[in-house]
Design a protein that fits this description.
Elements (H helix, E strand, L loop, with lengths): L2 H13 L2 H38 L4 E6 L24 H10 L3 E16 L2 E10 L11 E4 L4 H5 L4 E4 L1 H8 L8 E4 L2 E9 L4 E2 L2 E2 L3 E5 H8 L6 E6 L5 H16 L3 E5 H44 L1 H9 L4 H34 L9 H27 L3 H6 L2
Parallel strand pairs: 3-10, 5-7
Antiparallel strand pairs: 1-11, 1-12, 2-3, 2-6, 2-11, 4-7, 5-10, 6-7, 8-9
C-alpha cells in the first residue's frame, strides 16, 4: 500500500468522527494560538520599549538611588532604585543642576495615582511630576496649550497638562485649556493637553496627567524621588558626566547610586522582556503537550475500535509498516490541522489586541509553534500506531 492510499484511509477515518477529531485538535489549537499570541505581545512590548528609549535620545542618563545589580537582568526591588536605599529629593536634583558641567537638563521624576474629575465625569489616571525642563527629556508632544514654567514649579502651583485620553473622557472634542478640574479633591487649572501618544515606559501616556513635581509631592504627601533624568549636551561626554554625577553625589550617598546610559537601560529592559517572552511561550507550550496527550488518548481508542479492521487488513496482506504509517498519518493530520487553525487564531488575536497592547507577529514563533505541533502529532502518535501494527491478525479478527 502506497503513502497516498494510507493518506486517504487516514482522512476517511478522521472525517468519520468529525466531532471527536475537532475536540482532539482543540488542545493543539489552543496551544499553538497561545504561543503565537503571547510571543506577539512580548515582542510587541519589547519593540515599544526599545523605540521609546531610543526616542529619548542617546544622550540621556538615568540616575537611581542605591546600588542596582544588573547581572540578573533586573532593577532590584521596587524599580526606582534598590530596596532600602536612601531616596533622592528635589534638592539633590538642584545640586546636580548647579554642579554639573555640559548638561542641558536635570529633571527629577516622580509618579502617583489619582482620580481626576470634571463635573459628573471622572477617570483614574497616572500623575506624573517633573520640573519645567521635563519636555527636554521626554517625547511628549503638546496638542494645545503650554507646559508649566519654573515659577509654577517654585510656587507648587495647581496647574496641569492632561493626556489625550483624559481630555477625551472629560472634555470630549473641546479644548480643555483654561478649564478647571479636581484631582483627588483639589482644584487644578488645565494649561495644556498632549497629542495622542500611546504606551511608554511610564505606562499609558494618554492616561497620564503632568504637573509640577512640587505640586505632586504636596498632593500625595510623598517626597521621595525615585529617578533623576539628565540630558547631556554632548553624547561623547556621557562617561565624563557619569563620573561627575558620582563625584557630586558621593558626600551624601557614597557609592550608593547607579547611573545608567540609554544603551544600558535598553539592554536591561530587553533582557527582562526577552526572558518574560520566552517564559510565556514555554508556559503556553505546555498546553501543546496536553493536546498531544489528547491525541494519544484518542488514537488508542481508535485502535481499540478498529481492531477487527486491522485484523482484516493484515489478513489480506497489509504489512506492519502499512498499519504503522496509517495511524501515524492520522495523528499527524490531527496535529497539523490543529496547528494551522491555531496559527490563524493566534494571528487574528494578535491583530485584535493591537489596539489595546502592542503586538508584533514573528515568523520564528509561527514556525516553532507549527513544527512543534507537528512533532507532537508524530511523538504521541507513534505508540498507538506501533500498538496497532503489532496486533496478531488472528486475535484481531476474533475481537468483538
Amino acid at each position: 500500500m502506497n503513502l497516498a492510499e494510507s493518506f486517504r484511509i487516514a482522512l476517511r477515518a478522521l472525517t468519520a468522527n468529525k466531532v471527536r477529531s475537532a475536540l482532539t485538535m482543540l488542545g493543539v489549537i489552543i496551544g499553538v494560538s497561545a504561543v503565537i499570541l503571547l510571543v506577539a505581545i512580548g515582542t510587541g512590548v519589547q519593540g515599544e520599549v526599545t523605540s521609546t528609549i531610543q526616542g529619548l535620545g542617546s544622550n540621556l542618563l538615568f540616575v537611581f538611588p542605591g546600588q542596582i545589580n544588573t547581572g540578573g537582568g533586573g532593577f532590584g526591588g521596587g524599580g526606582g532604585g534598590s530596596a532600602g536605599a536612601k531616596p533622592f529629593s528635589i534638592a539633590d536634583a538642584d545640586l546636580l543642576q548647579a554642579r554639573l558641567v555640559g548638561v542641558d537638563a536635570v529633571v527629577p521624576v516622580q509618579q502617583g495615582a489619582g482620580t481626576v474629575k470634571r463635573g459628573n465625569k471622572s477617570t483614574r489616571s497616572t500623575l506624573a511630576g517633573s520640573t519645567e525642563k521635563g519636555p527636554l527629556v521626554n517625547s511628549t508632544v503638546l496638542g494645545g496649550g503650554r507646559h508649566f514654567n519654573k515659577s509654577e514649579v517654585d510656587a507648587s502651583a495647581r496647574v496641569c497638562t492632561i493626556g489625550f485620553t483624559i481630555k477625551d473622557q472629560l472634555f470630549g472634542v473641546g479644548d480643555p485649556t483654561g478649564q478647571a478640574i479636581t484631582i483627588n479633591g483639589q482644584h487644578f487649572l488645565v494649561i495644556g493637553w498632549f497629542a495622542k501618544q500611546g504606551g511608554s515606559l511610564s505606562g499609558d501616556q494618554d492616561n497620564q496627567l503632568s504637573m509640577p513635581i512640587t505640586t505632586l509631592q504636596n498632593l500625595t504627601g510623598v517626597n521621595r524621588v525615585p529617578i533623576i533624568l539628565i540630558k547631556v549636551t554632548d553624547v561623547t561626554q556621557i562617561d565624563a558626566t557619569r563620573a561627575q554625577i558620582k563625584r557630586v553625589m558621593r558626600p551624601k550617598f557614597g557609592a550608593e547610586i547607579t547611573v545608567f546610559s540609554q544603551d544600558q537601560t535598553l539592554g536591561i529592559f530587553n533582557n527582562i522582556l526577552g526572558i518574560l517572552t520566552y517564559m510565556l511561550a514555554g508556559i503556553a507550550g505546555i498546553s501543546l503537550l496536553v493536546g498531544g496527550i489528547g491525541i494519544m488518548n484518542i488514537m488508542l481508542v481508535s485502535v481499540s475500535e478498529r481492531t477487527r479492521e486491522i485484523g482484516i487488513r493484515k489478513a489480506v496482506g497489509a504489512r506492519t509498516y502499512d498499519i504503522l504509517s496509517q495511524f501515524v498519518l492520522e495523528a499527524m493530520m490531527l496535529s497539523i490541522l490543529g496547528g494551522i487553525v491555531g496559527i490563524l487564531v493566534g494571528a487574528g488575536g494578535a491583530a485584535v489586541l493591537k489596539s489595546v497592547v502592542p503586538t508584533q507577529l514573528t515568523g520564528w514563533a509561527v514556525a516553532i509553534a507549527f513544527f512543534f505541533s507537528a512533532g507532537v502529532g508524530v511523538f504521541f502518535g507513534v505508540y498507538p500506531a506501533w500498538k496497532a501494527s503489532q496486533l496478531d491478525p488472528i486475535v484481531a479478527l476474533r475481537y468483538e
